[in-house]
Amino acid sequence: MSAAVCGLKQRYESVLGGPMEWQIQPQPEMLPTGIPEIDDAAGGGVPRGCLTEIFGPPSSGRASVLAAILAQTTARQEFCALVDAEDAFDPASAAAAGVALERLLWVRCAHNAEHALKAADLLIQGGGFGVVAMDLGDTPPETARRISLTSWFRLRRAVEHTPTVLIAIARQPNARTCASLTLECARERVEWSGARFTSRLLRGARVRATATRRRKACSPVFTVKAI
Which residues face 182 on adjacent strands? Predict the structure, then answer.
């Protein structure tokens, strides 16, 4: 510890009337996403007790990343909650991706982002979920941007000191500094099968996900298979 820091510490202790203990925040437990490339880039997965934001344009792989996380979590016998702001969730596709639907609570919010925020807050406070995901992916960006930073801060504080992973899905980043981890998804190319001018089937898409955590960024590339 430098002399300047020692002097500052002594000044604070004289004001406080006692010793000041330096506290180091413990590293959060990580929940694997089920996508090795993302897990390697993000330091083991998505952090528990924190807000993770996954964003990108439509067909960028963000829904596939969420499905992988839900599948991984329900396979660990944990319960998950999906707050669906725009009623866009497809249970059949989720089941095909490996999500155990019997351990997934689906909350439909009928195109109301404010109701989605309140529902996510109540679910976090109720406890018992390994993952609480709020899907604003089909919410118009101008509507999602109207969510105040105070609301995001309240959600971040609610999930602190819990074993829950809070995930927000959107087209653009909205939580800003309230998110401990951000994953930006972008489609690189689409893979097809079949002749070009006859019937063609979607096989998958190459996706780049830029993981940003603690001012470090890494961009792994992986393939999302069509269901």
Answer: 53, 212
